[in-house]
Amino acid sequence: MATGKSDISGWLVRPASGHLWAGLAALLGALTLHTVLVTSGGGMDNAIVVDAARTWLAGGSPYDDPHFLYFPSAVAAAVPQALLPRPVLDVLVPPAVTAALALGWACALRLHRVPLRSRLAALGLLALAAGFAPFGQLVRLGNWTVTAALALPLCLLLASRGRWVAAGAVIGVAVALKPLLAPMALLFLFARRWRALAVLVLVPSVASVAAALLLPDPTGFLTRTLPFLLRGDDAFVRLYEASPAAVLPRLGVPEAPAALLGLVAAAVGVVCAYRRWRGPGPVPLRLSETSAGLMLSAFLVSRPSYNHYLLVVLPLLLAGLPYAGAVARRPWFWLALVPQLPGVTWPWLESVRRRAFRDAFTLCALAVTVAHHCVRGARGADGPDGAPGRERAAVESA
């Protein structure tokens, strides 16, 4: 990365002042404390999983709740929370979510070799917390998406250091908790890391089968949840879905063409991500931008697809800002995020029923920006022509 005085990167990677860290601590503390005071059960989405575990402990089926969209392994993982009183969850969950998001940001920084005491470390997290509305929403909801927001940068950090099997285990555990990162199996396929891919698949498979055998409805995920996800006809969920398959029918486009358009866009995104993986540039950029392309492609077709899913990929891209060829230096990267600025009133789009249109714009604009960047390739920091250097060779041969 460029760290000279003539480039903004040099300023970003220098140590941040104590005043900046104090401001960041005050912001995160205020957000967390406010959430503790106003939420119940640690957040609405967290309560769904915890209530599913409580239902199981009481002898019922967690899949009686159609909004429980997790593997059976998530039920077992939620048992410790289910044994705690709700007032305790109110206090513990918001700080845990905030800490996990901060740790994910730290892993993204280290992936790109950015010092944790740098100005980018402080300003980046400050920008995410204060300038990106889904950050606060995720803390308030307590959604288990936070596990993916931590697991993905940790996985890529391990992969960048040649520890692919450990990286596969991290993704496997995350998928067992919430299947959001399942598309990351394609990265291991691109890299031909067969042992790591096997670990990634086996961890959630074994955990889910073992947990399912303890449920009164062992096949509930397959017979009830999976059809619910494929139909995508829940009126409540549809209000918040940002994928084209969910938003376009609300604009008058028939459902079949809308779904087909989403599938085609996702397929194109996967191809672009593969080209980025095979292209030039530093290993951290290739890992982060390939992964972002894969995940954004999945968000284009997943049902549901929420705006806080973007917190899985956004820190990875933002942390790459010091690299001259990073996607975070493209204008459309920032323009795509404008609708997610908190406190801005958007005419005709402010109501709960229409918020998904703003989220869909952000998702689609970011997906197109990343896909276009993947095709063009990034100029490597280790040479004027972007040719991969010794770092890439070391990682791919590890």
TrEMBL record:
Positions of transmembrane segments: 20-37, 92-111, 118-135, 166-190, 196-215, 258-277, 308-326
Compartment(s): Cell membrane
Membrane topology: Multi-pass membrane protein
Principal subcellular localization: membrane
Residue ranges the record marks as coiled coil: none
GO molecular function: glycosyltransferase activity
EC class of the enzyme, as a word: transferase
Enzyme Commission identifier(s): 2.4.-.-
Keywords: Cell membrane, Glycosyltransferase, Membrane, Transferase, Transmembrane, Transmembrane helix
Database matches in InterPro entries: GT87
Family: Belongs to the glycosyltransferase 87 family.
Protein name: Glycosyltransferase family 87 protein
Taxonomic lineage from the root: Bacteria, Bacillati, Actinomycetota, Actinomycetes, Kitasatosporales
